[in-house]
Amino acid sequence: DIAGLPQIDGLPGFAPYVRGAAPLGYVAASWDVAQEIACGTPAAFNAALRADLARGQNAVNLVLDRPTLAGIDADQAEADDVGKGGLSISSVEDLAQALDGVDLENTPLFIQASTSALTFTALLAALVKKQGKSLAKVRGAIGMDPLGQLARDGRLPRDLDGIHDVMAQLTAWAKANAPQLQTITVQGSPYHNGGASTTQELAFALATAVEYLRAMQARGLSVDDAAPRFRFALSIGSNFFMEIARLRAARLLWAKIVQAFGGNAESQKMRIHARTSAWNQTVYDPHVNLLRGTTEAFSAVVGGCDSLHISPFDELVRVPDDFSRRVARNTHTVLSEETHITHTVDPAGGSWYVETLTDAVARQTWAIFQEVEKQGGMTKTLLAGWPQSQIADTAAKRAANIAKRKDIFVGTNMYPNMKETRIEPASVDAWAVQTERTASINQFRATANADQKQAALDALAKAGANSVDAAIQAALTGASLGEIAQAARTGAKAGPTTNPVHAHRGAQAFEALRQAAETYGARIGQRP
User: Fold this and answer.
1) Are residues 368 and 440 located together in one domain of the fold?
2) pLDDT in tens, the chain (528 residues)
3) Which of 271, 313, 261, 316 shows the shortest CA–CA distance to 290?
4) Is 317 within 8 Å of 282 (Cβ atoms)?
């Protein structure tokens, strides 16, 4: 009987928001089509972005390469890292080139900036000012998630107290200057990509968010100042009903947490960006990834996500091409325009199975969350290695099920196509990319007034609580991303280290076995 479930009498648009934060759901406004574009240089990124915005995408989802995330200019980075896995940005001119032709006042912008959020906010604000546009109309997120970065990489570039200081300054600045811009992104992907269960990913994300809420309160921000600045980024797996229930449970639990902190009903709303899973994608028979992405996207939409990235089927082996990006993008279009799902508010609401599963997911997630709190919070448990060990145990059980083919990867550990033609990865000349990027940053530096720039950087190094405005001024005077980052970290203490969550894919063991068999067959003349 579902009559006794705590969420069953809730309505769409009303706390605890199990049925969504908007009273009309997708009837009034659909989810943001926020496809990642993995091009490494500003020019290539812009060409792909403009093409995609003209064909169904309606938001910019900017993934950065490792040097940019670390606050290192392209000419100072290792050549193999520049433009790998994301966009290389070293200056406001790079950002201007990447976003050329994009109406920043009417196109949502999502940037996964992590601990480089201050630097990237400075570049974006400088660009908006140079274009004569209004920061108040810029919508989206430039999100910090230091604990997610710590879980993924096992280290941070500076101390957490200093990072939380910057987070609070950015949040206060955004409230005053860019009220539609979120500043804190809580990512579930570091845990999901390590093999975590759906409830573990959600519990660790919520525990992380609570850590950030406490840090913001300790720095003078109220819960109603901070909570609306959060955006949760969750990975969506292929367990169809489980993922629907998890997004509904996430909103329920976040509302409960914010209410416990004293937040009002508006602050209890949860903003969710969903991304189809990277953990269950496969190298072999990659077109099956199309089908995985479709069912995962459907779960995300029925679950009520606010923005969504659907992975192109070839993203594991190469930078997705025009065709694979088009198919992924058109999956959004089919869901929104052919299924009629946007004509119904919370289509899963009232289903006995979905409501019961929502309650079960919420209870199990809450139990894990309480254990994290019992051990002192997410920072302490990450440094002690408890989430890592819990995820490793879950990943080992999942690996055993995959090995026994209890859990199936179509085309990999079951129903393989032994005659398939492999997708060839596109070759990338790393030295050519870095040479291009080095020339760009050197040309940019040559245009700056050296004295004005140095004065602005000196002011930033001493700015303290006014670091956001000082960083913007440094960007306006021609300081590069690396120069701004270095000045902003003046006097910073060393960052914490821990064992990272081991990122992997579920199919990797079978893929390695098949690759070994193919290598043997090529040498001997037949497969073993």
Assistant:
1) no
2) 688 888 888 899 999 999 999 999 999 999 999 999 999 999 999 999 999 999 999 999 999 999 999 999 999 999 899 999 999 999 999 999 999 999 999 999 999 898 999 999 999 999 999 999 999 999 999 999 999 999 999 999 999 999 999 999 999 999 999 999 999 999 999 999 999 999 999 999 999 999 999 999 999 999 999 999 999 999 999 999 999 999 999 999 999 999 999 999 999 999 999 999 999 999 999 999 999 999 999 999 999 999 999 999 999 999 999 999 999 999 999 999 999 999 999 999 999 999 999 999 999 999 999 999 999 999 999 999 999 999 999 999 999 999 999 999 999 999 999 888 888 887 778 888 989 999 999 999 999 999 999 999 999 999 987 899 999 999 999 999 999 999 999 989 999 999 999 999 999 999 999 999 988 888 888 887
3) 313
4) no
| CA–CA separation, 221 and 325 (whole Å) | 41
Cα angle 99, 101, 103 (rounded to 5 degrees) comes to: 85
Q: What span, in angstroms and rounded, lies between the C-alpha atoms of 145 and 167?
A: 9
Whether residue 294 is found in the same domain as residue 243:
yes
CB atoms within 10 A of CB 497: 12
Q: Spell out the SS3 assignment of 329-356.
A: HHHHHHHHHCCCHHHCCCCCCCCHHHHH
Question: In this structure, are residues 81 and 73 in contact, taking their beta carbons and an 8 Å threshold?
Answer: no
d(CA 372, CA 217): 20
Together in a domain, 353 and 459: no
Strands (E), 197-324: 230-236, 272-276, 307-309
Dist CA 434 CA 72 (whole Å): 13
For residue 162, count other CB atoms closer than 10 A to its CB: 19
Count the domains in the chain: 2
Does residue 472 sit in helix, strand or coil? helix
Distance CA 231, CA 208 (A): 12
- State the pTM of this model: 0.96
Do 365 and 446 share a structural domain? no
Domain with 435, as residue range(s), is 430-488
Distance CA 242, CA 303 (A): 10
CATH label of the domain that carries residue 335: 3.20.20.240
Determine contact, residues 199/365, Cβ cutoff 8 Å.
yes
Q: Round to the nearest angstrom and report the end-to-end CA distance of the chain.
A: 55
Max Cα distance, the chain (Å): 72
